[in-house]
Design a protein that fits this description.
alpha/beta; 318 residues; eight-stranded parallel β-barrel
């Protein structure tokens, strides 16, 4: 937990990408915290500096290059034993000079797909997810009746046509035969669109169809071993630090936290707001989607509070 004795440190870092699409990582040198781990290059923001000034200075000192700071990628708050760090990461695709480790650090140009294989500090792991994984996660609504299943599948196709690449099929209370048929049809649509599909709560169906699984919080709390194979995605809905830690211990690939804002789905339940979301974010290194009254326009704000992006029903469903 955060304490009054924790130091608050603002760190600027860069996702530096070359013409081949590779991303530059630097290895933390001996004598530093987390020595030997790989990180996105950058350093502490000094008093009086703007974020951009700090990043330009740090990359000049650390790598010997002059950069043009690009768009924000993600800002990740992370609680360490004796400090609270906020890692503000910017895209960098243009620079002058040849990057070299001026502080004795090893450097590596890494193809994006290989980034997850590098051991990193907790704050850097969500940055990899921000580079590689979808920034929106559709949670499907229920069809009104069996007669509406075809309409529901058409709406899913339209949603996928907007570029959605991660979908959770949530069909509470539906009879098993109808649910299986609808999930199988949805899986076909997602496969054609290059999208990942996760089934809410039904581990047996997920395993049988070779799909991912999304765990409601109550189900998450009841498990001690991963319920789907390692090659299938596993996610969980979380509401507090304990559930986030359970999700990490179980091997979840990502999580959902919220509701950030009040929603019609849960009338009378106030949203936790962005400050509370970020306070939860800093105790886990999982990619975390924010949910609750959010849509596409909220993705930049979500990223600045450490979210992978947004999860939504109404905000993403056609």
């Amino acid at each position: 937990m955060t304490t009054g004795k924790s130091r608050h440190i603002e760190v600027m870092a860069a996702a530096i990408t070359d013409a081949r699409g590779r991303v530059l990582l630097a290895r933390r040198t001996e004598g530093r915290d987390l020595a030997g781990l790989w990180e996105f290059p950058g350093g502490k923001r000094e008093p009086g500096e703007s974020p951009e000034q700090a990043l330009v200075r740090e990359l000049r000192e650390e790598l010997g290059i002059e950069v043009e700071v690009g768009a924000p990628l993600i800002a990740v708050a992370q609680q360490y034993p004796h400090k609270r760090l906020r890692l503000d990461v910017r895209h960098v695709t243009r620079w002058r000079g040849i990057p070299r480790g001026h502080e004795g650090q090893a450097l590596a140009w890494v193809p994006p797909a290989k980034l997850p294989g590098y051991a990193m500090p907790p704050a850097d792991r969500p940055v990899v997810a921000a580079l590689l994984q979808p920034d929106r996660y559709l949670v499907t609504p229920m069809p009104a009746s069996p007669a509406d299943d075809a309409v529901w599948l058409d709406a899913l196709q339209r949603a996928l046509a907007t570029g959605l690449r991660r979908v959770q099929v949530r069909l509470p209370g539906m009879d098993s035969a109808r649910r299986r048929a609808l999930v199988a049809a949805a899986a076909d649509h997602c496969a054609l669109a290059g999208a990942e599909l996760l089934v809410n709560g039904d581990a047996a169906l997920a395993r049988d169809l070779g799909l991912g699984l999304h765990l409601p919080a109550a189900q998450l709390r009841s498990l001690t071993t991963r319920p789907v194979p390692a090659h299938a995605s596993l996610a969980a809905s979380c509401h507090d630090i304990e559930e986030l830690r359970l999700a990490e211990a179980l091997g979840c690939d990502f999580a959902i936290v919220g509701p950030v804002n009040a929603t019609p789905t849960h009338p009378g339940v106030p949203g936790i707001g962005w400050p509370a979301f970020e306070a939860l974010r800093e105790h886990a290194s999982l990619p975390i989607y924010a949910i609750g009254g959010l849509g596409l326009d909220d993705i930049p704000d979500a990223r600045q509070h450490g979210a992978q992006g947004v999860a939504a029903i109404r905000g993403l469903w056609s």
